[in-house]
Amino acid sequence: MLTVSAPVLADGDRRWCERVTVTFRNSGGTAARAGTVTFATHVIGALGVHWATLTSTQPLPAPIPAGSARTETYTVCVDSWRVPLGMRIDTRQVTVGRR
Fold first, then answer.
1. pLDDT exceeds cutoff 90 at 99
2. Rg (the chain; Cα; Å)
3. Nearest to 56 by CA among 41, 42, 71
4. Is the model's pLDDT at 98 over the cut of 80?
5. Burial status of residue 60 (CB atoms within 10 A of its CB: 0-12, 13-18, 19 or more)
């Protein structure tokens, strides 16, 4: 069983990117050898209005041995045109799919 912590966010070097740190915990009996991490990133307007939710995927930092945890920081970006001046992004959900 592979679980993921709530994301810890930090500003990226561009307004359409951010650094997302998560911890993966493998409480199962075998190593997690492959999979994907899916990020749900929200585009937020200057007044706090939610404009869109965009998803992206990156590889799972495998292998994650049984009974252990691993922390990884990803740079998550959306298309620059989706985040005009005054807007920001906020990655609120991270899920993991194991193969």
1. no
2. 15
3. 41
4. no
5. buried
Rounded Cα distance, 99 and 32, in Å: 8
Closest of 27, 30, 42, 39 to residue 83, by C-alpha: 42
pTM, two decimals, is: 0.91
Residues 6+ apart with CB under 8 A from 22: 4, 5, 6, 7, 8, 37, 71, 72, 74, 94
Cβ-Cβ contacts under 8 Å for 36 (sequence gap 6 or more): 57, 58, 59, 60, 96, 97, 99
Residues 11, 42: Cα–Cα separation, whole Å: 14
Cβ atoms 52, 10 nearer than 8 A:
no
pLDDT tens-digit profile of 13-54? 999 999 999 999 999 899 999 999 999 999 999 899 999 999
Amino acid at 50: H
Tokens 């492959």 correspond to: 34
